[in-house]
Design brief:
Protein name: Cytochrome b/b6/petD-like protein
Largest sheet: 2 strands, antiparallel
Distance between the termini: 72 Å
GO molecular function: electron transfer activity; heme binding; metal ion binding; oxidoreductase activity
Number of strands: 2
Mean pLDDT: 79
Membrane topology: Multi-pass membrane protein
Number of helices: 9
Order of helices and strands: EEHHHHHHHHH
Low-confidence stretches: none
Subcellular location: Membrane
Keywords: Electron transport, Heme, Iron, Membrane, Metal-binding, Transmembrane, Transmembrane helix, Transport
Length: about 260
């Protein structure tokens, strides 16, 4: 710090040589014309770069708003949550037999704990001043292994996820007044349709049954023959009750 010239930004990357002695870099004053005041020159550059990225993110969020789902329902046990992309590799890990069910503690804590603990130890395993990757095989190997594992598990999670079902279960559905006194709703509840399509017919493991655009005959045919992931023979009641159910579902219109 020189009187009247303000604070100077100085980089210090002292390392230890092979004998354990600290090696100090040359003083910044030995590089005339290659240093700058920390305030305001260096900070101004940092703020300008930060402002560019901030504006970029704001434009991105305006152009592509975050997708919203329906209101959370703690009673809907058929809902399958999906974490953000940066946790997908851990989400995929919990799907494997050795890391799920009774071994959930292994997938949730033991394996991630060992992996991140190993990464924390890397700086202490190789303290040499060498910067070329080929001269530092141990840290580079750890980092490449961790990176490859995260990329593979993230890819597997995205490739194997049922995105169509996820879109259906999280879809925002307009409120529809359900007449629970309707005979068709009584058949709907008795036939366990509620388990897949929700108590308000808003959908869940199965699609929503509001605004289907289907006629009574089409609904009756689906109940007998099935459609998509719904197998045939799901309906076990009488034809009279099925007609009530079909009339009830076909009449559901969002306001």
């Amino acid at each position: 710090m020189h009187k009247g010239k303000g604070m100077k930004f100085v980089g210090d990357s002292r390392v230890q040589d092979k004998k354990g002695q600290k090696v100090y870099p040359p003083d910044y004053s030995e590089y005339p014309g290659k240093n700058e005041p920390f305030w305001p020159d260096f900070l101004l550059k940092e703020w300008m770069v930060g402002a560019v990225f901030l504006i970029g993110y704001l434009i991105l969020t305006v152009a592509h708003p975050s997708p919203l789902e329906g209101q959370a329902d703690p009673t809907n046990t058929s809902y399958i949550p999906l974490p953000d992309w940066y946790f997908l590799f851990l989400y995929q890990l919990l799907k494997y037999e050795f890391a799920s069910g009774p071994y959930n503690i292994i997938g949730a804590m033991v394996i991630p704990g060992i992996a991140f603990g190993a990464l924390l130890l890397v700086p202490f395993l190789d303290r040499g001043p060498e910067r070329r990757p080929l001269k530092r095989p141990l840290p580079v190997a750890f980092m490449l292994l961790a990176l490859a594992s995260m990329i593979f598990l993230t890819w597997e999670s995205v490739a194997n996820h049922d995105w169509a079902a996820a879109k259906r279960q999280g879809e925002i559905v307009k409120e529809v007044k359900i007449d629970e006194a309707d005979p068709g709703y009584a058949v709907y509840s008795k036939q366990s349709c509620i388990n897949c399509h929700g108590d308000k017919l808003q959908g869940g493991a199965g699609p929503k049954l509001i605004d289907t655009g289907l006629s009574d005959k089409e609904i009756i045919k689906i109940a007998h023959d099935g459609v998509g992931t719904m197998p045939a023979g799901q309906y076990k009641g009488s034809d009279e009750d099925l007609e009530k159910l079909a009339k009830f579902i076909s009449g559901l219109k969002s306001e």
